[in-house]
Amino acid sequence: MVLTDFLYPGEAVVFQSGKIRTLNDQFFLYITDQRILLHRRRGVLFKKDRVIAERIEDIRTMQYSEKGVLKKKGVLRIETLSKKMDPIVGKVADIKAIWQEMQKYIRKEPPT
To answer: What is the model's pLDDT at position 27?
Structure first.
């Protein structure tokens, strides 16, 4: 897997999604024990990678919704400490699986 070039030493992938769409491009989304990674590779002879990473501890909110009537799509909106990420769109089952997996790693704020 070419993704290993982008992992920190000792970082482990715990989840891999099917193809998702964000930033007008298709990616595979990986959840590691430290980060969310969006990765895509293009090119036949000359490979070009595009990787987007966000630290899990920086995620503040996540919202899941569905859009469409006949051909439903899942939509995941993630907000980090510094920004709102572009919506992540894909098959309902894939996006729902990402949301469910992320619930395990999002730090719960203690009640005040």
So the answer is: 96
